[in-house]
Write a structure and sequence with these properties.
heterodimer; A: alpha/beta; Rossmann fold; 7-stranded mixed beta sheet; 6-stranded mixed beta sheet; 12 helices; 18 strands; B: mainly alpha; ABC transporter involved in vitamin B12 uptake, BtuC; two-stranded antiparallel sheet; 11 helices; 73% helix
């Protein structure tokens, strides 16, 4: 066999092989035989909001364990600490992007981390489904690989403002924690109240990690608001609700999903938390909660959304993946993304469908109130 | 400003200032004697808060807490002081003493390492969750001419001022206090005079840690929730307070704590609350520009 023929053969091979390689516009993820499929999780595992972050990881873990395997490949969860902030989220996004076994990421926990990380994901065309990043701008940036199983802040804040207006609580003071998340919620709420003809007497920012908010509350007190709205997390929210009583503010308190945690808000708030209004998603079924709590103890905020996000991802992988003769799996990245976009699933947080931007359609935010019945305080769904 | 608001902000500032002052004393004591910054000091406060919390939860479980709330609280303080004193002594013995003759950056790095170690230790123990103190002190207070004063604010202020007076007495009047001052001025000469220098240094750490323990339990009782990161911000602020007051100077640390607390609470009424730390720290920077050694920094003979 001459040398030319050898070259010709090689070219021939390439010719037939190449359409296979370039089947997907964005390239493919190839899981070699016997290797696990990795479901990555970017969430806060250490630091201030570690308990909320670990709750997300647990939600994903539960879904992955229930699924077990896809087309004969075992599933493996790889959780990394995203620090609820930009720089660590970007760093682990790069790490996931360079891991050939990762099919998608559940994360990141905070909007401040999801925003820069989504650019990295777009570079690698690696799917990300956030269970908890609610900042409105995330779905307004034309990142095709970004989806979320939670709601966006605008929807939530609008809902809160409508509720307050209906209750006649139109003179409000608004506090936020200066984060992407808290501030965008607070500002949207303030806009909502103004649209309803209400009055925003104060719009103040506080610092995450501080313990003493009596100075700002003392400033608000003489303005006599009917409602204090807080955009932020439970750690600060519960201190505000307690210190309101201490400085003597006679007003209702309302906050967002960050405060929807039994342990950190209701228990930590004690008597002061009774009567507070909190907006959050529809509660998952009692059966699901029982299964979750049997394994991980009291649930916090976003485990149902994380559970659903993992199921959406695994479902799409199962539909798109093609098994080769040697036992390897080939998953087209664009095909996978399109499959997720087409999702229509009954999740524990309600029916899951995405709009063109990656936001959930028809996701309803529910207003809850902390009530005490028979000596036990809990979140009661109002409407 | 409405006078009643003025007085309420004054009380707010003094309350948090008292906490800063207690913690700042720990920084300043150690700096005075070793010219090093013990960056793990904020974590000692956190450990104090947790020790108090564990004591109270145990008592609650045994059904003792609600029958004897005051003795239980006292026991919580005692346990916190005990645990923190031991931790302080261990920090000195294992993290700083081996590095005493090393370049100045070495113990600093060691301190940061100790701080990260303690944070993560507690994080693992409590699984990163927030813990909640039982409500033994009432949230209520009384009105004094239209000014609202919380009972616990008074207690907090009283305890911190009482401890500061006691500390000043110990340092000025007792034998061990005289030894501390001597070691701070000249270790070698003190050694030659028969003072147990290592023992005195360890004692200084124990005193500083005990004050941080009290501050930790007070913070836990007042603000009710604690977590493994809670030492960080008070630590940084108390350090600032110590520097502004004149690091190494006891009266300066107390003054710095109250000044910082007051600046924080009054700045809220001048500008929107999001600028609270900006205003407070800008003023502190100005102080240091004009008095680089801090407000009371030059009284070298009294440093400990």
């Amino acid at each position: 066999m001459g040398r030319k023929l050898w070259v010709f053969n090689l070219l021939l091979c390439l010719f037939f092989a190449s359409p296979n390689l370039a089947q997907d516009d964005w390239g493919e993820i190839v899981i070699p035989p016997q290797k696990p499929i990795k479901i990555a999780v970017g969430t806060m595992l250490t630091g201030d909001y570690a308990s909320m972050g670990i709750d997300i990881k647990n939600g994903v873990e539960m879904a992955v364990m229930e699924k077990g395997s896809i087309l004969g490949h075992s599933l493996q969860i790889q959780a990394e600490d995203d620090g609820c902030a930009g720089p660590p989220s970007v760093a682990i996004a790069e790490k996931f992007g360079n891991d050939p076994l990762v099919v998608g990421v559940i994360g990141y926990m905070c909007s401040g981390g999801s925003k820069p990380a989504s650019d990295i994901h777009n570079k690698y065309k690696l799917l990300m489904i956030s269970p908890s990043s609610t900042a409105q701008e995330l779905t307004a940036r034309n990142i095709p690989v970004f989806f979320r199983t939670c709601w966006n802040d605008i929807i939530q804040a609008k809902r809160a403002a409508e509720f307050a207006a209906k209750k006649g609580l139109l003179k409000v003071a608004v506090i936020h924690d200066k984060s992407d998340y808290g501030q965008s919620l607070a500002e949207a709420f303030a806009r909502g109240i103004k649209e309803k003809g209400g009055e925003v007497t104060a719009l103040e920012g506080i610092t995450r990690g501080d313990k003493d908010f009596s100075p700002v509350l003392t400033k608000i007190k003489p303005l006599k608001p009917q409602l204090v709205y807080f955009g932020g997390m439970a750690a600060e929210g519960v201190l505000i609700v307690r210190q309101m009583k201490r400085v003597g503010i006679q007003a209702e308190f309302m906050s967002d999903d960050g405060c929807f945690t039994e342990k950190d808000f209701i228990q930590a708030g004690g008597k002061a938390a009774i009567g507070a209004y909190i907006t959050y998603a529809r509660e998952p079924s009692a059966d699901w909660v029982k299964r979750f709590e049997a394994k991980y103890g009291p649930r916090q905020t976003f485990s149902p959304q994380a559970y659903d996000a993992a199921r959406v991802l695994m479902d799409a992988v199962e539909k798109v993946a093609k098994k080769k003769e040697d036992g390897s799996l080939v998953i087209g990245k664009k095909a996978l993304r399109d499959q997720v976009a087409k999702t229509d699933m009954e999740g524990v947080t309600g029916r899951i469908q995405f709009d063109a931007n990656g936001d959930r359609t028809g996701s309803v935010v529910v207003v809850y109130q902390v009530v005490e019945e028979k000596g036990k305080a809990f979140f009661k769904a109002l409407e | 400003m409405d006078p009643s608001i003025f007085f309420e902000q004054l009380i707010n500032g003094l309350t948090i200032g008292g906490v800063y002052a207690l913690v700042a004393l720990g920084y300043t004591l150690v700096y005075g004697i070793l010219t090093m910054i013990n960056f793990a000091h904020g974590e000692v406060l956190m450990l104090g808060a947790f020790s108090g919390y564990w004591t109270l939860s145990l008592l609650e479980e045994k059904g003792i807490l609600w029958n004897w709330p005051f003795s239980s609280a006292a026991l919580a303080f005692l346990m916190a002081i005990l645990v923190c004193s031991m931790v302080g002594a261990c920090l000195e013995r294992f993290a700083y003493r081996p590095l005493r003759s090393a370049p100045r950056l070495a113990p600093l790095i060691s301190a940061i390492g100790a701080s990260i170690f303690l944070q993560n230790l507690i994080m693992v123990l409590v699984k990163g969750r927030m813990r909640v103190y039982p409500d033994i002190v009432p949230l209520s207070g009384f009105h004094l001419g239209g000014v609202f004063v919380g009972y616990f604010q008074l207690l907090l202020l009283g305890v911190s001022i009482g401890l500061m007076v006691a500390l000043t007495f110990v340092i000025k009047k007792t034998k061990v206090g005289i030894a501390m001052r001597a070691v701070a001025e000249d270790k070698k000469a003190s050694y030659l005079m028969g003072i147990n220098v290592d023992g005195i240094i360890q004692f200084t750490f124990i005193v500083g840690s005990a004050l941080a323990a009290v501050a930790g339990v007070l913070v836990g009782m007042y603000y009710s929730q604690i977590n493994h990161m809670m030492g960080f911000i008070p630590g940084i602020k108390a350090f600032t307070a110590a520097v502004v007051g004149g690091i190494g100077n006891i009266t300066g640390a107390m003054l710095g704590g109250f000044v910082l607390g007051l600046l924080e609470s009054f700045s809220v009424n001048i500008l929107p609350a999001q600028y609270k730390d900006v205003v407070a720290f800008a003023i502190l920077v100005m102080v240091l520009v004009f008095r680089p050694k801090g407000i009371l920094g030059e009284v070298v003979s009294e440093k400990v």
